[in-house]
Amino acid sequence: MGGPAPAEPGRAALEVSPLPGRCGIRARGEISALTRPSWEQALSELVRRHAGVSYVELSDVAFVDVAGVTALAVTAMKLPDGRVVVENPPPQLPRVLEMFWPGLDRIEVAL
C-alpha cells in the first residue's frame, strides 16, 4: 500500500504500510498537499480491504492538513459498514474532525 514519497531536501515525505495482524495501515511522516496522492491511495486500499473495523495508526505522523483529514472522513463515509479507528493521531486531526464532521460515528479516535 503506497510507498514513501520521494525524499528530497526540504520536501515532506509519507510512508504508509499495512498493519501486521489486523486490517489497517500505519503512516509515518506528514500528510499534506505534497503527500496527498500517497495518502489517498492508501485510504482507497483500506476501503478495498475493510472488514468491519479498520485501523489507521498515526503515532509517527507529525502533521496532517485539513485536506488529509477530509480524505479520511470521506473514506470512512464510503465504507459499507463498520468504522475506522484512528490511533494516536496528531492533535489537529480530532479538532478538524469535530469542527467539520461533528458526530461522524464512522470514525473513532483513540488517543
UniProtKB/TrEMBL annotation:
<dbReference type="InterPro" id="IPR058548">
    <property type="entry name" value="MlaB-like_STAS"/>
</dbReference>
<protein>
    <submittedName>
        <fullName>STAS domain-containing protein</fullName>
    </submittedName>
</protein>
<dbReference type="Pfam" id="PF13466">
    <property type="entry name" value="STAS_2"/>
</dbReference>
<feature type="domain" description="STAS">
    <location>
        <begin position="12"/>
        <end position="98"/>
    </location>
</feature>
<dbReference type="InterPro" id="IPR036513">
    <property type="entry name" value="STAS_dom_sf"/>
</dbReference>
<dbReference type="InterPro" id="IPR002645">
    <property type="entry name" value="STAS_dom"/>
</dbReference>
